[in-house]
From TrEMBL:
Cellular component aspect of the GO annotation: nucleus
PANTHER family membership: BASIC HELIX-LOOP-HELIX TRANSCRIPTION FACTOR, HES-RELATED
Domain BHLH, residue spans: 19-75
SUPFAM superfamilies to which the protein is assigned, alphabetical: HLH, helix-loop-helix DNA-binding domain
MF terms in GO: protein dimerization activity
Organism (species): Gymnodraco acuticeps (Antarctic dragonfish)
Gene name of this polypeptide: LOC117539453
Entry's localization field: Nucleus
Main location: nucleus
Stored InterPro entries: bHLH_dom, HES_HEY, HLH_DNA-bd_sf
Protein name: Transcription factor HES-5-like
Length: 131
């Protein structure tokens, strides 16, 4: 026997479809509002940048997003340069610390050698004899 579709089955499915059809425009409206709000926030955060680029012109959402990408890329490059500079300074400082330690060691070594030489000189000491 073939399955039959009853009126109760089709009616139970319709409220879901109807509810979905009624909610979809509302959900889409809320989504657009979130997007617009975020774009306005970006515009206010980067206001001076936008004025430098195109003063006295109305910016479209696409313009705001493109300019934001440019600003973020520039900030990323600056951050990378600062990181490289900091690494370089740290390497130089480590190298300088190593040179200072070597200089301290060579000074200490010279002092010990001078002290030993003075002790061995015939003028300052006689041979040690335990008897």
């Amino acid at each position: 026997m073939a399955p039959t579709i009853t009126a109760a089955m089709t009616n139970s499915h319709e409220p879901h479809t109807l509810t979905h059809k009624l909610k979809k425009p509302l959900v889409e409206k809320l989504r657009r509002e979130r997007i617009n709000s975020s774009i306005e926030q970006i515009k206010s955060l980067l206001g001076p940048e936008f004025l430098k680029q195109q003063p006295d012109s109305k910016l479209e959402k696409a313009d705001i997003l493109e300019m934001t990408v440019c600003v973020l890329r520039r900030l990323q490059q600056q951050n990378e340069k600062q990181r490289r500079l900091l690494n370089h300074v740290n390497k130089m400082q480590c190298s300088s610390d190593k040179n200072l330690r070597e200089a301290d060691f060579s000074l200490l070594s010279f002092t010990v050698q001078t002290s030993i030489t003075k002790e061995k000189s015939p003028v300052n000491s006689a041979p040690w004899r335990p008897w």
